[in-house]
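note to self: dont lose this again. the chain is below, predicted strucutre after it. 215 aa total, dont forget to put it in the shared folder this time
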Amino acid sequence: TAPGPRSYTTLRDEAVKLFNSLQQLESERDPVPLMQGVLQTCLDLPPLVDEIYCQLVKQTTEPPAPGGQGDLHYWQLLTCMSCTFLPSPPVLRFLRFHLDRTENRFPGSEMAKYACFIREALGKTKGRECVPSLEEILVLMQRQEMICTVHCPGAPACSVAISSHTTAEEVAQELVSRLGLSQSPNLFALYEQSRRREQPVGSATLLADVLTRFE
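---
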């Protein structure tokens, strides 16, 4: 049994289950929960990360219907993977070659746009504590940013656009600038508040992970 809320069998069996999930993804009307399930398995069982990257590269190479719904579902999961996990160096080189090839073969297409987004994400991803929330997956599928609402003492709530890579320190700095407090000698930090507790958010913590915990 692997640590965490889920129970797992052998890596081989889990790899087969993930392969079956990918096959199902192609025709899934609502792919978001399935995508999150694949991501959660990869988070709990890191040796499967490279396997899923390789499977997704395979599925998006010479697809029967380039740019069709099934093909784009694979690209969307690949986008979510790129914002959550870094593959091993050999797989990363293989993936970058695939992204370059896709952009060259289908310039201006949705696949090329996903390939460009994924390349940029891979340059920022350092690993996640949590898999993307359902909301984050939805915005990643559209290659957009999330809107995070921060409540500030003595000031109206502020809406901040964040990506999968935005840290608490970056958001705090932006809010300090917006509120005209750049010259203040005080230190500022974000706090995470729930019914049970209130605690400071570490400066290097990804806001996307905080939002997933709230979900």
